[in-house]
Amino acid sequence: MSTLLERPRRSADDGRATRAPRMRPSAQPSGPRPRRTRHPLAGVPLWVGRVLQAIAVTMVLVAVTDVVLPEGIYWATSYFAVFGFSPEPVLFNAVLLFVVGAASKRRLRGALVFLVLFELPTVLLPLTNLLEAVRGGSALPADIQRVDVVAAVLAAAFVVLLLVARAQYSAVLPRSTYVRAAGVFFGGVAVAVVTGGVLARMTAEPGETAADSWWWALYSATGVFPSSSLVDVQATGLHQSIETIVSSISAVALLIALAMLLRSARARRLLTEDEELDLRGILASNRTDDALAYFATRRDKSAVFSPSRRAAVSYRVVGAVALASGDPVGPEEEWDAAIDEWLRVVDHFGWRPAVLAASERAAHHYQRRGMRGMVLGDEAVLRVNGPHAEAVTRSPQVASARRRARRAGYTAQFRRQRDIPRAELVALADLAEDWRHGGDERGFSMALSRFADPSDGDALVATAHDGDGVVKALLVFVPWNGDGVSLDVMRRHPESLNGATEFLVSELVAQAPALGLTRVSLNFAVLREVFVRGARVGAGPLLRAKRRVLLMLSRHWQLDSLRRANEKYDPDWRPRLLMWSRRATIASVMLAVARAEGFARSPRRWHVQSDPRSADFAAAVRALGSPVSALPPAHPVSPSTARRIGIAEGIRAAGGDPFPPRVARTAALSEVRRDIESAGSTTVPLEPVSVVGRVLGRRRHGGITFLDIVEDHVGLQVIAAAGRTRGYGALRGIDLGDLISISGSPVRSVRGEPSIAADSWELAAKSLRQPPNRRTGLRDPEAQVRQRQVHLATSPDAAELIRARARATRALRDGLLAEDYLEVETPVLQRTHGGATARPFRTHINAYDRELTLRIAPELALKRLIVAGFPRVFEIGRNFRNEGVDATHNPEFTAMEAYRAFADYDDMRRLAERLIRSMLVAASGRPTMILPNGERIDVSAPWRVVPVCDALTECIGIPIRPDHDPDALRDVCAVYGVSVAAGAGVGTMIESLYEELVESRTVEPTFYTDFPAETSPLARPHRRTPGLAERWDLVAGGMELGTAYTELNDPVEQRRRLTEQSLRAAQGDPEAMQLDEEFLAALEFGMPPTGGLGLGVDRIVMVATGATIRQTLAFPFVR
Predict the structure, then answer these.
(1) Lesser CB count within 10 Å: N end or C end of the chain?
(2) Is 553 helix (H, G, I), strand (E, B) or coil?
(3) CA atoms within 13 A on the CB side of 742
(4) pLDDT in tens, 765-799
(5) What is the pTM of this model?
(6) Strand pairing of 936-938 and 928-930?
(7) 360-379 burial by CB neighbour count: b if 16+ within 10 A, else e?
(8) Per-residue pLDDT for 294 more than 80?
(9) Separation CA 670–CA 120 (nearest Å)
């Protein structure tokens, strides 16, 4: 079972390792700081206990070293004159003083009673002697005047102090505890006296009576000898060895009796069903940042609730320490009340409060109540949403373990405990017990210790199975709010694959979205920063020494290994603190922690699994609902949003609906505006209408309010009057951004503005966010992308680009359909990536447990359709390339690819020119392109066709041929600063020169044809010029708009080229294509001569509108 010291659980690496951070006022929780009032005598029990224990230690030291002081000084300065004890027996009195001192420090009322009763003889005996001397007319003994009077005065003062401070001894014990302890004590003393008396008679000297032997035995056992005066004790007469035996027996009896008193102020009390239900109710209704919150329901704990019962502190009494764990359960504003109630209970029973694994936020609350703290370690929390999940699964160690497990046939299964059949669940619990390898169960603060309990149905059970379906590893997580889980059980088969646990964790992270998870709390790393900082260069000698000690301890407990096991996941490290009262020592608290967590043996172990709940309890737990359905975490909101949320709640409270399912709407704003403008100056009234729009402007003029509403980027004015419009008062206070329905008559205002005279209105949707300024809109380009819907709603120009794109795409589709092309759809998820040389996006399909890629081009699938007998096919769809992002590139983009049997690249060039020209006209209304510098050029004339080598020859001034000398061409590349790889061929260098010197400088649309065959693995070799391929690229405005091939249909040559590509991919080239056997099999079936065309829709829209690629997309990629 996972435990505090076994559970390896982000603080800065340069933070302090053993001391709690200084509490700054700005870091403290909000709320009133509680007043700390201290009684003047509050320290009496503590200091009395310290003095008693110091005297006990001194007494033992004096006895051990056999130092004999002058008798006058000894008695005048000894504690015996104050407490009424004789100097012997040493062990008995030392144990008595030490234990009574401990009881006084715990404020036990029994310690007060004991001290007062033992002081009374010291006060009363001198008075008795004085009265007897006065009655008999004899003189006072000198000893009484010198010692007894001083002792009586000191004892009386001490008794008075104790009685005055009696209220500070607030801890009580049940009467049964006193009875049991007294029975043990007197029974032990009786055994000691009998043993001493018998041994004394056996070794008696002549003249000693039996009565003397028994009195001496009593004196050795308790120090009580009736015939002796208080300070003039005679020798015992017993042999030294007998005296030691007798005093040892009585000391042991006293130790056991008083240990019974100190062990606990009340019998062990477990969490009741009602208390557990209350805790579960708090957890179900309140989100928490504490991953350990669910462990508060552990049944060997007790719970103290705040007066409102909205928060609670769970704890267990270990010895004299009341050990709480984690943060208080419930909303933070209730923590103070719960902590105060807990401390009152702790004080009442004389325990010493301590808190294990508190978060920094909770530590502030405990510190404000006088507790001290230190950082005990760090909890490892994984964020498993978005890029954080990818970082975990791509970690080299985790990825290696994952691949190794998959090769071995391992699979992972994730189920809620309630969905597992009972028999299987019991079997899993048995496996977890068997794989624990015996020994005591460990865990307290970070373990539930009741796997398979029916009340924990929301627990997430993760199992790893080998190829035969046998369970090889098991992880159990308890719920953490509705979107997280916290590790409870971690087990694996002794013969399981190395990395089985890492495999399970990585699979959990990969499936987190499907499981509804955003956070996973793993293990706890004890004193992590000591390990990290102690290993750094320049670490101080003390820090290195601490690290060496911890590494030594790691041989027995998994300290460093579990820290390293969690670091591979790159978690967020969250500090956990140990807090303790100033009345307790760190040693006693650490011992209690070790006993609770199972690292130190306890007189008794807690068997929480033996406390089953009733059927009524199970039904009540089900009625509470699952934490999985808890509300998402609250996010910070602006004051404006908070105000609008308040308005929405007010509408609900009044019986309304701020987000109704339906409102009145009989016409669009554009229709109403057109009707008003068509009516002109006629006085014939138009029919009343109901319209809906977003409020983007508001002007108040006394009893009249003018609103500007917009729908589909068409605006219309609303005129509302106090005497005419129903609900005018509420409409006057409407917020900008709200969607409203207006019913009224279409009219023109005094200034001729098309308007609606409002008769009534209703709220269509309450906007919780303030819209940007209507005139300026969103100015920040980053904000325009991140708040895309706001930008499109408030910027007609941005919205027009989306419409232009739609018109261009439709023109493209209509043009192809008009030429009898069949529109098809091909897979986006592909087992092998091909169709272009580009870096793909990779993903994993859980259903078949294999790696997939997102397509970089649909080319190969479309060619297979040509083989299948479809002579003309096309697809307009999304492609994905894991490459750079700039003004002309987006990770996902829209492309059109068309294939036509019995055509070549010349046919596809003419088709491309027709299609693009129609797209330009559809987007902008004329056949023009807008260059990056803003210049608009007419492209209605036929476009230029230039071979690539001719273009380079014209640019460089020397002839460029496909059989050019490689060294000479490499020199040309060096002159023009074009970087090429060491082993690059002539074709690669020609294309690199083309991209740098030709493509980027091309302004008007130009078809560059006949590229090197070396860089065109899917194109047919040129019919006349060896070394070239029948391929063209269309370039305009410095960027490529499309490309086309005469497709290679020779399966043997195609296999040779793709094999070369696959070898490059195997050698690490991320852009090289893989060998696609299915495509090659299609070519072997026979593909007719075919021409293929690809157009970049995004870029064509860019040159049509003069916008960037991000502006043409409805939702461009955002980091």
Answers:
(1) C
(2) helix
(3) 34
(4) 999 998 988 888 888 888 888 888 898 988 899 99
(5) 0.52
(6) antiparallel
(7) bebbbbbbbbebbbbbbbbb
(8) yes
(9) 102
Give CA–CA dist 1028/758, Å, rounded.
Answer: 72
Q: Which two tokens stand for residue 700?
A: 């108040």
DSSP classification of residue 196: H
Using DSSP's 3-state secondary structure scheme, residue 831 falls into coil
Radius of gyration of the chain (CA): 44
Distance CA 903, CA 1049 (A): 12
Q: What is residue 598's three-state secondary structure?
A: coil
d(CA 18, CA 11): 13
Angle at the Cα of 297 from the Cα atoms of 295 and 301, rounded to 5 degrees? 95
Residues 6 or more apart whose CB falls under 8 angstroms from that of 830 comprise 852, 853, 854, 855
Looking at the chain, the number of H-run helices and the number of E-run strands are 38, 29
Strands 372-383 and 302-305 come out as unpaired
Q: Class assignment of domain 801-943+1004-1112?
A: alpha beta
Q: Looking at 203-334, list the stretches that DSSP marks H as alpha helix, in order from N- to C-terminal side.
A: 210-222, 240-263, 273-285
Element of type H or E holding 573: strand 572-580
Q: Looking at domain 640-771, does it have CATH number 2.40.50.140?
A: yes
Whether the ω angle into residue 353 lies within 30 degrees of 0, i.e. cis, is: no
Condensed to tens digits (0 to 9), the pLDDT of residues 12-52 reads 333 333 333 333 333 333 344 444 445 677 777 777 877 77
Cα separations (Å) of 22 from 16, 27, 924?
A: 10, 10, 65
**Type of residue at 112:** L
Would you state the pLDDT for residue 339?
A: 93
Q: How far apart are CA 672 and CA 657, in angstroms?
A: 27
Q: Which helix (H) or strand (E) holds 620?
A: helix 615-624
**Tokens 């057109």 belong to residue:** 674
**Domain residue ranges of the chain, discontinuous segments joined by +:** 44-263, 640-771, 801-943+1004-1112
Burial of residue 921 (number of CB atoms within 10 Å: 0-12, 13-18, 19+)? middle
Q: Please report the DSSP string for 759-825 in residue order.
A: EEEEEEE---SPPPPTTT----HHHHHHTHHHHHHH-HHHHHHHHHHHHHHHHHHHHHHHTTPEE--
Q: Going by C-beta distance under 8 Å and a sequence separation of 6 or more, which residues neighbour residue 150?
A: 76, 81
Question: How would you classify the pairing of strands 519-526 and 372-383?
Answer: antiparallel
Calculate the dihedral angle through the C-alpha atoms of 446, 450, 456, 462, rounding to the nearest 10 degrees. 70
Count of all residues that appear for the chain in the document: 1119
d(C-alpha 1060, C-alpha 962), whole Å: 20
Position 942: which residue type?
Answer: P
Do 760 and 1091 contact (CB within 8 A), yes or no? no
Q: How far apart are the C-alpha atoms of 369 and 612, rounded to whole Å? A: 36
CB-count burial class (<10 Å; 0-12, 13-18, 19+) for 593: buried
Q: Are strands 1006-1012 and 944-947 parallel, antiparallel or unpaired?
A: parallel
- Compute the distance between CA of residue 1119 and CA of residue 1114 in angstroms, rounded to an integer: 16
- From the list 984, 1030, 977, the residue with the least C-alpha distance to 1007 is 1030
Angle, helices 986-993/966-975, rounded to nearest 10 degrees: 20
Q: Coil, helix or strand for 872?
A: strand
Closest CA relative to residue 271, chosen from 294, 292, 298, 293: 298
SS3 sequence of 889-953: ECCEEEEEEEEEECCCHHHHHHHHHHHHHHHHHHHHCCCEEECCCCCEEECCCCCEEEEHHHHHH
Confidence label for 183 from pLDDT (cuts 50, 70 and 90): confident
- Amino acid, single-letter form, for residue 157: A
Is 801-943+1004-1112 in the same CATH topology as 640-771?
Answer: no
- 778 touches 790 (CB < 8 A): yes
